[in-house]
Amino acid sequence: MITMDRRHTPNTRRQIAGHGRIGLKPPGTLDTRVQEPRSATHEPWEPPNGQPSDPRTARRVDWGQIGTFITGVATAAALIFTAVNVVIARDQANTAEQGQITDRFTKAVEQLGAEKPEVRIGGAYALNRIASDSPRDHSAAMDVLAAFVRTHPPAPLTDALLMWPPVDTTAAADLYTAADIIKSQSHSAEAKPINLSGARLAKMDFAGVDLSGADLSGIDLTGANLTGANLSRAKLLGATLAGADLTNANLADTSLINANLRSARLTGASVTRTEINATNLTGISAVGIDLASANFVSAQLAGAVLKDADLSNISFVGMDLSGALLDGANLGGTDLRATTLVGTDLRDVDLTHTRTGDL
């Protein structure tokens, strides 16, 4: 307890009376004096954890972050909404497009069955447009055209060798139009092996066509232009290619069993692993052809032009090579026993390693 000396000096009494500088005030009085600012050397108060010193500033920063977050969420929601709408719109467009293609397809098929040839031609071109516009419908369009070609009445028959009277392709313009569309679409990325078995397409221009793997059994391509055509792995069983031009054609792995190639031109053609069995090659022109690489079993070769051809190690036993031109051909290891060689040209042919029997 602090005690005060009641004995005051005059100065002391003046201080108390004036509530002066010692800072004492009578009980019940209010000190209204303005406090002096803190010394500049006093360390300011700082909130913990690095928070802003001004609470109002802290509140402003927090609201700013929340606002940014809300803006980001709204933007993301807008993007998702837009993407969903785009997908829905695209699906609706695809559905509408497929519906239109279906209608076009149905109408084109109906046109192919019309009585007037010009309407049938229009149907063929409509299917061609569908095959180009819709990759998913390419095979279906080509199958319909192939069926039309297989079943449609052909051009009038002609002599296979003399081609007389000439084939009137205008008499079956719709047929040849459909076949020409098949040719033009044969190099498409969506093209698949096609079935033209039994079709009658004499004098057809199939130059450069890609019919690899196609079923061409029994087809009539008499006098057709097949230069540079790709017929690899095709089935040509019993096919008629008499007088056809197969120059530089690819016949690798093709089956020519019982096929008729009489007077056909095969110069430069590839016949690697080609099945030649009971094949009519009478009068063919196949200068420099490599028959040694073919699966050669038997063939009619009377009058064939096989100049400079590779016929090595082939068995021609019992076959007819009469009148054939074998000038400069390679007959090394060839078996010519019991072979008919009447009028055969064997100039410049080395028969040293050839089995000739009583030749």
TrEMBL record:
The keyword Repeat applies. Signal peptide: none annotated. It comes from the Bacteria. The chain crosses the membrane at residues 66-88. InterPro entries: 5peptide_repeat (IPR001646). The keyword Disulfide bond does not apply. Keywords: Membrane, Repeat, Transmembrane, Transmembrane helix. Pfam families: Pentapeptide (PF00805). Residues 33-45 have a biased composition (Basic and acidic residues). This is Pentapeptide repeat-containing protein. Residues 1-58 are annotated as: Disordered.
